[in-house]
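Progress against Task 2.4 (sequence-to-structure conversion) is shown through the following example record, which the project officer requested during the mid-term review.
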Amino acid sequence: MPTKRYRISIPLNDETRHAFKELADATNTSIGAAAGGFLDQLAPAVLKLAQAYKLAKADPIRAAEMVTQQAIEAGKALDQDQLDLVEAIEKAKAKGTRA
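Structure tokens generated for the chain above:
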């Protein structure tokens, strides 16, 4: 069963709008779809950040540990994305095409 999609109005500055416009152009989607997909991917990290904020007053050390762990996980995910891209480029080169 498909997940329900919600529409909300989010004010963006020029730089952020431009970034999502570039992402939309690169992925052949609308700005809304590009921004929504990006935010959907960030949802787990946003939830962890919200938990850390809530915990910060009662246990600031634990909150800081949560944020640090989140940063480590994000770094690992970026590393994997980079490795996947390098692999795709190498495969494309072997086939004589572009990634």
